[in-house]
Amino acid sequence: MFDGITIQLLMGQLLIGLINGSFYAMLSMGLAIIFGLMHVVNFAHGAQYMLGAFIAWLLLNTLGINYWGALFIAPVVVAIFGMVMERLVLKPIHHLDHLYGLLATYAVTLIVEGLIRQQYGSSGLPYASPIPGGVNLGFMFLPWYRLWVVLFSFAMCLGTWYLIEHTKLGSYLRAANENPEIVESFGINVPRMITLTYAFGVGLAGLSGVLAAPIYQVSPSMGSSLMIVIFAVVVIGGMGSIMGAILTGYLLGVVEGLTKVFYPEGANLVIFVIMIFALVLRPQGLFSKKEGA
Amino acid sequence: MSSDVTKAPLLKVENLSAWYAESQALHGMNFEVPEGELVTLIGRNGAGKSTTLRSIMGIVRKRKGSICFKGDELIGKQTFQIARQGIAYCPEERAIFSSLTVRENLGLPPVLSSGGSTDEELLEQFPNLRARQHSMGTRLSGGEQQMLAIARILRTGSRFLLLDEPSEGLAPVVVKEIGQQILRLKERGYTILLVEQNLKFAQMVADRHVVVEHGQVVDVLAADQLQANMARVKTYLGV
Question: Taking a C-beta distance cutoff of 8 angstroms, is the pair B69, B30 a contact?
Fold first, then answer.
């Protein structure tokens, strides 16, 4: 069954799995942060990821601002877009059922994707790698940029996890996640905290988009195709669990990569098969501390 | 109503009505809390006592009438703005955060004005918490959780405390300890509005009792008038 599997193939797919896992982890972490505090299933996360990539492309092609500048500017622009969106779209429906938030963010996704498609077309736009070349490891060629993406996203995930689990700001977030009314009764401006948290989660999506631009084609649909997988990651890890989202993101990226080696036909399905098992056997998610979903 | 309030009120509630969605819970509450006093809101389950505290705090947002604190109107203000005026709230369910340790729970409320207790002072004042400071908040016993819920709001520097049924569900020995802690706070000059169903506990700590029924104030009694009116009060409480 495993005839013809070379070390090059195995390691190559593991690297692809790790890179995909880096994006899964970054995006699902942002989604988990937003859901944890706001209980909003942010369907616009994919569009916000795509916006990050598009802004990077625009910065390079219109203003001549390179990748490193875009790495700072694009997430900030996307975060500001998130702030406006939270105030105008999500805040007015905050008191309604979660389904309304999901539908509203889905509508934003369709609008943003539609506008970009109308302006720039559907085909992917190329974005050159800012770190060309790589290293030959003997059994495979490792591009520097892909190594950078894996290391940078890992550092971002670790930094965000530390911020939420081990700082005073994080304790406000965790507490507001449990009982926002009581946190507000301590004199903390929870409405502003919600806006900033949404902006932070959305900014992370924008940052992921910039990281993705040199690897994948920059296209209006690049986010929506990824979103279904990201939702599966968050469900498997546990809605609202930051570490769960990070670990599941990397884990599923690698599982997907290994499935491509051992059973390529199942590579696109494996994450959803795991999701079904997780929902049936542990509906609260693999890493959630809660007893039930 | 039997008691006259002679001191200047720190809090004055006038014709306060409040709603949960379309359901009206308060029907024109009127009472005052003089500075430095401990006033209890007593009444049956569902009379509107907790709703009154939640309305003062702005947690129940749909409200009408007037809530005047230190001369400032609180109706129309958001919860965090009300807290910053100098009011601290300890809810009935204690609301200890399960994802935080005792120390993190204690350190969570920000210092809003000077005069609040430091973490070290709080651990000294509530020694049970010191030994448990690294445990997760919800691992504490009911009494310890109540101590923690009261202790953490003393951090903010607020001098007006809203305490919702601190004796609820606790063993008599723990209730006594909580009562002593509340009396110490009163001695330190805190003004306290306490919701209580346990009449014995209310009697132990209060200067004045406001009796609530069907979302309205039906009687106000000074502490020394309670005994003489006990039969009437017990009827209100359905005891």
Answer: no
Write out residues in chain A with pLDDT < 50, as ranges: 1, 291-293
Q: What does the alpha-carbon distance between residue B117 and residue B114 come to, in Å, rounded to a whole number?
A: 9
Average pLDDT (B105-130) is 90
- Could you give the CA distance from residue B223 to residue B194 in angstroms, rounded to a whole number? 14
Q: For residue B14, what are the contacts with CB-CB under 8 A and spacing of at least 6?
A: B30, B65, B66, B67, B68
pTM of the model: 0.88
CB atoms A184 and B78 under 8 Å: yes
A175 vs B83, B84, B97: nearest CB? B97
* Phi-psi domain of A39 (left: phi exceeds 0; alpha: psi -120 through 50; beta: other): left
Residues of A in contact with B79 (CB under 8 A): 181, 184-185, 190
Strand, helix or coil for residue A31: helix
Q: How many CB atoms lie under 10 A from the CB of residue A268?
A: 12
CB pair distance less than 8 Å for A184 and B97: no
| Chain pair A-B, CB pairs under 8 angstroms | 62
**Nearest-angstrom CA–CA distance, B86 and B69:** 9
Q: Chain A contacts of B89, Cβ < 8 Å?
A: 182, 185
Within an 8 Å CB–CB cutoff, is residue A95 touching chain B? no
Residue of higher predicted confidence among B138 and A13: A13
Are A187 and B104 in contact (CB < 8 Å)? no
Return the exposure string of B146-166: e unless at least 16 CB atoms fall within 10 Å of the residue's CB, then b.
bbbbbbbbbbbbbbbbbbbbb
Distance in Å, alpha carbon of B94 to nearest chain A alpha carbon: 10
Helical axes A190-212 vs A67-85, angle rounded to 10°:
140
CB burial string B12-30: b at 16+ within 10 A, e below: bbeebbbbeeeeebbeebb
ipTM of predicted complex: 0.92
| Pairwise CA distance, residues A127 & A220, whole Å | 14
Output the pLDDT for position B20. Answer: 94
Instruction: Please report, as a single letter, which amino acid is at residue A218.
Output: V
